[in-house]
Amino acid sequence: MHNQLIAIIGAGVMGCATALDVARAGYRVILQDHSESVILQAPDVIRREYRSACFLKQGYGEVPLDIIMDRISFRIQDEGVEEANVIIENVTENIESKKEVYARLSQKARPDALYALNTSCISVTKLASFLPDPRRAIGVHLMNPVPVKSMVEVIKGHHTTPETEQEMVAFLESLGKNPVVIEDLPGFVSNRLSHLLMNEAAFIVQDGIATAEQVDAIMKKGFSYQMGPLETADLIGLDTVVHSLKVLYDSYQDPKFRCCPLLQKMVDAGHWGRKTGQGFYAY
Ligand SMILES: NC(=O)c1ccc[n+]([C@@H]2O[C@H](COP(=O)([O-])OP(=O)(O)OC[C@H]3O[C@@H](n4cnc5c(N)ncnc54)[C@H](O)[C@@H]3O)[C@@H](O)[C@H]2O)c1
């Protein structure tokens, strides 16, 4: 299995961390992003992610960083993707962006390539409908930070076959992950629950009831959360949280998913969390 080539499309927060984990497990990786500046920064992002994972996860440093980096090719175009056995799509949480990527990949990729669709909230059945063979696609909701979190939510689309499910579970287990396979509806389990919490935490700050620090302290000390909801929102990226809330709201037409205006204002101001150096906290 380890002689397989894995193409990772989108080199943002999730793409870089996933490339690190996949290359660390021994696979050859192509990491592609359409933004030249993102690809130029990606090696440094991966190095930082590795150092942080070594600090947070015992044994992570057993595979030296230079060996991992040698296994990753950084690309702005799609060259090499036609040989990939597994394609992990990690582009922006926006249906039109993902649709455009699938149309492009469909021209190039092997017909038997296995597609892992990494989305926070969008229905996997809907995303898979943009691929020529939706039977070979399955949702793979990796958790952030990827090297530290072993649980992966795996979401079966309407057409996903049992063979696709088995192959993807075997691939994820080869990375040391613990997949939990569930059915498909927008937001799945994790984000239907977690985005309600992050959104309501933002409303509490907006209403002047408590500061971000106080909200997070209450959830950590009172409910044994490892991270507070607003620290988590900053880690995910407030832009991604807002995109996901919009998907949940549009999908269920339920006002409980309406996006907190403070979150939208912070995104408009460029305060997207850790990735921009400022969110509910300064980094
Ligand atoms: N951030 C998280 O904590 C988290 C957790 C789980 C799942 N996800 C999901 O993973 C996916 C990626 O999230 P992220 O946080 O890495 O986002 P991000 O904004 O950090 O990165 C997305 C990347 O996709 C690239 N991109 C956009 N359109 C492209 C195209 N047409 N071709 C190639 N590259 C393109 C962008 O340049 C950007 O670098 C999203 O669907 C998100 O919902 C995110």
UniProtKB/TrEMBL annotation:
The keyword Hydrolase does not apply. SUPFAM superfamilies: 6-phosphogluconate dehydrogenase C-terminal domain-like, NAD(P)-binding Rossmann-fold domains. Gene3D superfamilies: N-(1-d-carboxylethyl)-l-norvaline Dehydrogenase, domain 2, NAD(P)-binding Rossmann-like Domain. Keywords: Coiled coil, Oxidoreductase. It comes from the Bacteria. InterPro entries: 3-OHacyl-CoA_DH, 3-OHacyl-CoA_DH_NAD-bd, 3HC_DH_C, 6-PGluconate_DH-like_C_sf, 6PGD_dom2, NAD(P)-bd_dom_sf. Pathway: Lipid metabolism; butanoate metabolism. Residues 187-283 form the 3-hydroxyacyl-CoA dehydrogenase C-terminal domain. Signal peptide: none annotated. Belongs to the 3-hydroxyacyl-CoA dehydrogenase family. This is 3-hydroxyacyl-CoA dehydrogenase family protein. It comes from Paenibacillus cucumis.
